[in-house]
Amino acid sequence: MIQYRTLSEHELCRGLFRDFIRHQVVTKCWRKEHNEWLIKDAPFIDNWTESDYDFLVSCLKHTLSAGGFVYAAFCGNALKGFVSVESGLFGGAQKYLDLTSLHVSEDMRGSGIGTALFCAAKDWAKKNGAEKLYISAHSAVETQVFYKKMGCVDAESYQQKHVEAEPFDRQLECRL
Length: 176
Prior knowledge:
The protein is an alpha+beta fold. It has a single domain, classed as 3-Layer(aba) Sandwich (Aminopeptidase). Helices cover 26% and strands 38% of the residues. It has helices at 50-65, 113-127, 141-149, 160-165, and strands spanning 2-6, 23-33, 36-47, 69-75, 78-85, 96-104, 132-137, 153-154, 170-175. The strands form 2 sheets. A 7-stranded mixed sheet has the order 1-4-5-6-7-9-8. A two-stranded antiparallel ribbon has the order 2-3. A hairpin with a 2-residue loop joins β4 (69-75) and β5 (78-85). The model has no long low-confidence stretch (mean pLDDT 96). Residues 15-173 form the N-acetyltransferase domain. Pfam families: Acetyltransf_1. It comes from Schaedlerella arabinosiphila. Keywords: Transferase. One of its GO terms (molecular function) is acyltransferase activity, transferring groups other than amino-acyl groups.
């Protein structure tokens, strides 16, 4: 049985992720060419390193210390998914809050955890004054299918820091 709860800053450490499998075999991705989105062959394996986990822990701690939201799914005591939303509206009239991470352990994908985490992020964002979630989403076809299923569309306005940090990501929004 999956339990969901908000994480606290003191829980965030590398050990929390000991049973989390961040592994994804990607074969096809969406790429924007001549102002049109196309599916292209772009094979690679996404697998976090220790330094990636250290950076993630640091980012999630910062999210919480700045008043943001970090929510997680557990199977027993094992972390199997998490989502984070930053505090602080941006985008002018768009009234965005930034969904900065949403990950489900490879062994639990397809079980509904991602949907539950996304819905929790939407609820939190709405309660905190947002009209839309902003997502700089991985361009893998599977990732894009998930976000489309969640009601996401191409963002009306881009957050430049995300575009620069991940030029292949697709900038999305979801109305709350």
